[in-house]
Amino acid sequence: MSISNTLAVPPLPAVLLEPLVRNALVEDLGRAGDITTDAIVPADAMAETRLVARQDGVLAGLDLARIAFELVDPRIEFQPRLADGATLAPGAEIALIRGPARGMLTGERVALNFLCHLSGVASATASIVHSIREYRARVTCTRKTMPGLRAVQKYAVRVGGGSNHRFGLDDAVLIKDNHIAIAGGVRQAVERARAAIGHLVKIELEVDTLEQLRTALDLGVEVVLLDNMGPDMLREAVRMVDGRAITEASGRITPETAPALAATGVDLMAIGWLTHSARVLDIGLDS
């Protein structure tokens, strides 16, 4: 499941991250702030803590954790020991944090919520990437993201060694079964889409059968989404395409099923649960 510690994934701009963290802190602080910490911890108390991994995985979301502490109290000093993309083992020190104890305890949960979740996404992605490392297929995410977190979840997929599918409804055409049903058929749906979009926008068509795939190839779509096909059918579909379009498998792909699907020669493997259902990675704030 490991990936390189020097994985070249550009960090997301702070201007994009700061509003996410700020909103999370506002939600947590409510109308009166951290009444527990303010009652127990003296205002002048200082502390030193560490973010520590408690299980194997891949780190992602460190900038959001840093921003959480800094927004609560700018005097908090956040010293990262690792970078996003680092392979974690239990006990690995991720960051050293020094400064006012109140701010540290108040920002802890929001920082860990982002860090544990995004590290879980990166770790789940890395597990799939590792399982198909012998094949050329790439792992990609979907639009099945948590509201408001799409940019950071897709970032975590990249940190885990995966690729991103479209970011929204506006940057690529993906014609699915309901579009086809309402349009009256595959040909009608593709022709209407092609007449409406700009020349830089790609068309991807979801197909469930080899007959639909033949139609898609006749229409010259750029990408075919081969939905819920087993290895044998998927292999035949890849053979039929023969390089005329990008092939993308989808449907119930796990680290256990991925190798057999990747062995068919498919180009991409779209996996929705990487963002909507990945388990958090256990990371703690230890004093």
Produce the secondary structure layout:
Blueprint: H1 14-29, H2 35-40, E1 46-53, E2 57-58, H3 62-72, E3 77-80, E4 87-88, E5 93-100, H4 101-131, E6 138-140, H5 150-159, E7 173-175, H6 177-183, H7 186-196, E8 203-207, H8 210-219, E9 223-227, H9 231-241, E10 246-250, H10 258-262, E11 268-270, H11 273-276, E12 283-286
Parallel strand pairs: 6-11, 7-8, 8-9, 9-10, 10-11
Antiparallel strand pairs: 1-5, 1-12, 2-4, 3-5
Would you write up a description of this structure?
- This protein has 287 residues and is of the alpha/beta class.
- The protein folds into two domains: 14-122 and 279-286, Quinolinate phosphoribosyl transferase, N-terminal domain (Aldehyde Oxidoreductase, domain 3, Alpha-Beta Complex); 130-277, Alpha-Beta Barrel (TIM Barrel), CATH 3.20.20.
- The protein contains eleven helices and twelve strands.
- It has helices at 14-29, 35-40, 62-72, 101-131, 150-159, 177-183, 186-196, 210-219, 231-241, 258-262, 273-276, and strands at 46-53, 57-58, 77-80, 87-88, 93-100, 138-140, 173-175, 203-207, 223-227, 246-250, 268-270, 283-286.
- The strands form three sheets. It has a six-stranded parallel β-sheet. The chain has a four-stranded antiparallel β-sheet with strand order 3-5-1-12, with helices on one face. Strands 2-4 form a two-stranded antiparallel sheet.
- Strand 9, helix 9 and strand 10 (246-250) form a beta-alpha-beta unit.
